[in-house]
Amino acid sequence: MFFSWRYTKIIFVVALFFSRFSFAAVSADDGKAYALAKQNACLGCHAMNKKIVGPSFQSVAQKYKSDSNAQTFLKAKVVKGGAGSWGVVPMPANAKLSDAELSLLVSWILRGAPSEN
Ligand code: HEC
What we know:
Blueprint: H1 5-39, H2 42-45, H3 57-63, H4 70-80, H5 99-110
Helix pairs in contact: 1-5, 4-5
């Protein structure tokens, strides 16, 4: 045998370590994005999985899932607000968000807005 059980175990432990590590990083971002959405009243009009005034974040993720320009387009849209993608009801502008906050929010929305809540 070329690979002993011992090596297999080491590889397994290393793989497990990295997968846990990356999970932790993703959920920390999810938590931050959720808090930001709450602070900025996004959640007054948007829910994860049902339409309120605006579309659910999961439908947004679905709509743009094969659109490679979605991140840029949606960052600009959230800042400026406006209507037309989902209907005639406009979203108000959210001009006070920083570029970093917008990136965090939009990439979270495009992942389907995962949250523990
Ligand atoms: C007053 C209600 C309201 C608030 C507050 C609001 N939205 Fe919206 N949002 C809407 C409506 C209505 C639409 C649909 C606009 C359209 O049809 O183009 C929308 C659309 C969106 C879209 C999809 C845009 C598109 O063109 O497909 C994203 C992403 C989004 N909102 C994110 C956010 C984020 C992030 C916040 C908080 C910073 C936020 N919204 C706050 C009402 C709101």
